[in-house]
Design a protein that fits this description.
The chain has one domain. By secondary structure, it is an all-alpha fold. The radius of gyration is 21 Å and the shape is globular. Helix 4 runs antiparallel to helix 5. The longest helix has 28 residues. The protein is built from 20 helices and no strands.
Length: 365
């Protein structure tokens, strides 16, 4: 039976269950993905790294964090602090995700140590073990939305709509991530972590979990001694009250699209968004392009999009348009878990890559 189209029960999204064996048997693990054609010379130009733009964006990010966090702390106890903490929350609890992501790929800066430093800072802010998530994300790119292989599938089927809504408030993801850090700090890895973290890297995962937990414990101690929640509004808390932009953009990356395919045009979504969100999100709205060519730096993604857009489905026109697209599909998946949106390709595009494996995509009626 073709489980991608015909399954009616909740699938096992763990990396150690029967779905993993199915993916390997079907040839979906570490497979050869479809890529739009680009001449080698153009590809090399698009992949060229530079410190200039990432330096500018990172200095601006830290300056805004200091400004908004400092103003919020100075005005603490008055309503005037609220807008500053709302801004600080997004700059901490959402922007950290895009910086974690790009620096984890090693493409944001040309200078390696700059990528590493910002990656570790952003990993702490987003409550992710920097070693575990580096390997988790590598698997996500190798086996994108392949059930049983990809540890970063955000919208599982059938979707639990209330649970997805809670993510906008950092729940339950922040609790799960904090528990994972605590478990790692005790020297334990989950079965899934043991599957994608090489043995030689597992000791580093434990070390960095202990560093992160020591800082969080320090913030809690500071709050207790000061008898104030202000320290937690500055450290850790923004992962709850400021994560909404990260979640808003993260859900539409793949939500409602296909599982178990080898063409990113079927399982990823590109969306046109406003300039402020693009800066906060570091151009990850060009998500089909990013998955096809993950070594292209964030600042070159608009140029990459312009070059290959005739081979891609038309992007959603706005964030609201993407949510209309996705929510309709998620509501249908509650009763038809095998359903997935099938984006329409332009006449200039090559056909979807579906012929290699017995994996169907439910078509819109």
């Amino acid at each position: 039976m073709n489980i991608a189209a015909n399954h009616t029960a909740k699938r096992d999204y763990s990396l150690t269950g029967p779905e993993s064996a199915h993916a390997v048997a079907a040839g979906l693990a570490s497979a050869d993905w479809y890529h739009s054609d680009l001449p080698r010379k153009e590809m090399k130009a698009l992949m060229r790294r530079s410190d200039q733009q990432a330096d500018r964006d990172t200095v601006l990010w830290f300056a805004l964090l200091i400004l908004t966090g400092g103003a919020g702390a100075f005005l603490w106890g008055s309503w005037a602090a609220v807008p500053f903490f709302l801004a600080y929350g997004v700059l901490y609890g959402s922007v950290c995700d895009s910086r974690w992501h790009e620096c984890g790929h090693g493409t944001a800066f040309k200078t390696t140590w700059k990528n590493d430093v910002v990656y570790h800072i952003a990993s702490f802010m987003v409550m992710r073990n920097p070693i575990a998530w580096r390997w988790s994300h590598a698997r996500h790119h190798t086996d994108t939305i392949i059930v049983g292989r990809d540890p970063e599938i955000a919208v599982m089927r059938p979707p639990e709509m209330a649970l997805l809504a809670l993510k906008f408030f950092g729940l339950p993801s922040a609790v799960y991530d904090l528990r994972a850090l605590l478990r790692n700090a005790w020297g334990r890895l989950s079965d899934d972590e043991g599957d994608f973290i090489p043995e030689a890297e597992q000791g580093k995962a434990v070390f960095w979990a202990r560093v992160h937990m020591a800082i969080y414990c320090g913030a809690v101690l500071w709050a207790v001694l000061a008898w104030s929640i202000l320290p937690l509004m500055l450290i850790g808390g923004p992962r709850l009250y400021g994560c909404w932009h990260m979640v808003m953009m993260g859900l539409i990356q793949h939500g409602g699209l296909a599982e178990d395919v080898l063409d990113h045009r079927l399982n990823s979504r590109t969306v046109y968004i406003n300039p402020i969100s693009r800066w906060l999100y570091w151009n990850m709205n060009y998500h089909v392009e990013h998955h096809m060519f993950p070594m292209v730096p964030y600042h070159a993604l608009p140029a990459l999009h312009a070059r290959i857009k005739d081979d891609l489905p038309a992007p959603n026109r706005s964030i609201a348009d993407a949510y209309r697209d996705m929510i309709g599909a998620l509501l249908r998946q509650r009763k038809e878990p095998g359903y997935a949106i099938r984006p329409v390709l332009p006449s200039t595009a090559r056909p979807y890559r579906e012929e290699l494996h017995d994996v169907d995509i439910a078509r819109e009626s």
